[in-house]
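Example 456, ligand arginine.
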Amino acid sequence: MTLWGGRFTQSLDTLAWALNSSLPVDQQMAFQDVEGSVAWAKAIHKAGILSDEEHASISAGLDTVRNEFASGEFIFQPSDEDIHTAVERRLSELIGVAAGKLHTGRSRNDQVATDFRLWMLNKIPELHSTLIVLQNALVEQAELAGETIMPGYTHLQRAQPILLGHWWLSHYWALKRDIERLQDLTKRVSVLPLGSGALAGAPFALDRDALAKYLGFDEVSQNSLDAVSDRDFAAEYLFVCSMAAVHLSKLAEQIVLYTTAEFGFFELSDAFSTGSSLMPQKKNPDVFELTRGKAGTMIGLLTGLMSTLKGLPSTYDKDLQEDKAPVFAATNTLLSILPVMAAALRTITVKPERMRGAIDSTMMATDLADYLVAKGVPFREAHSMAGRVVRAAGENQVRMEELPLEAYQAISPVFEADVYQVFDPLESINKRNTVGGTSLQSVKMQIAECKMQNSK
Ligand code: ARG
């Protein structure tokens, strides 16, 4: 059975049928399709299209269909073109001709958009809580890090000493923005298209506000042409997922780097490392590499949907059937990465001595300039003098703190014996005590703020 066919004398070619069918993808929206139908039956009953008996029979039939999906007893037929056809076909088997009245005034165009939005509204909280699980793992590591110091980098060159906790939390805030984007997107998903018909609206008095309220939508769409074609929410969702994947990828890349023998800042637990079939010594960070790799695939999904949308004439075009697979794939990817990342991060062993060993006194050259500034030297001059100290140490092949005071004073008489204090990295860190800085106090406040945000 198809939901069409009256005007055809030939049935659809088998290969064309297979191409056209969307059931393998859209059966993920089975529950949403049933809920949308329950709401629709209620609405058209109220509009006088269904009698009380017909409405009761359709509602009971849909309850059975829902139960069959829930118990796994629902049997799809080869003739089910999509999830909408499957539900209606089963309903007619269960209740007979009355099932044929359910589709009055409705089109699969407004139906599919409604199902898809319902599916997304249901998924967003799950993504949200999975992102929070990862954030919590970062906060835990930040707390454990305490006073552990590490080199901070710009251009991947040693820059200034920072607290490891500050580094962990830098990834927390990126995820925080992803969560905010997800929340903000919700209001654009929560617009009901149902009642738009194929494109022009419903031909009877339909209480769309009641329909929206019943299904949990915040608003109803205001233009039926736009409503059946709008997939902005899907593109936006893919962007939100892709941005999160980019954040995960950046974090993963750093873990890959920091677990190398060259860095040696972190060690992965065996539970989250893989071996090599050839080289017995290998311990590979596959989980993190896959995270990095999947971000690329995810960006492709976003780009793909944007390309599908860009040339479409209004209103519904079958191209739109391509909207669900990327959204489902992106969701599955994120939901498979996030918990593994969280668990893998929690079990990382930190090597504080390696991190400390990677800090050399040239990283305190800025502090040296600040020292001169505190003694009244303008920053530009101080910067140049500190640079000359770096050069002198290099030329003499000694560390900056090993240069004798005379060498300092040859550069500027402003240098005094207290200059050697600037080479303590923890001092340097704790001087950066503004909100958002790397000092121990700032990071403690940051941890408290993160915990507060996540307990809301
Ligand atoms: N399977 C279709 C989709 O996912 C449902 C809408 C079909 N509408 C139509 N007029 N053939 O977009």
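Summary: Residues 14-106 form a domain with the Fumarase C; Chain B, domain 1 fold (CATH 1.10.275.10).
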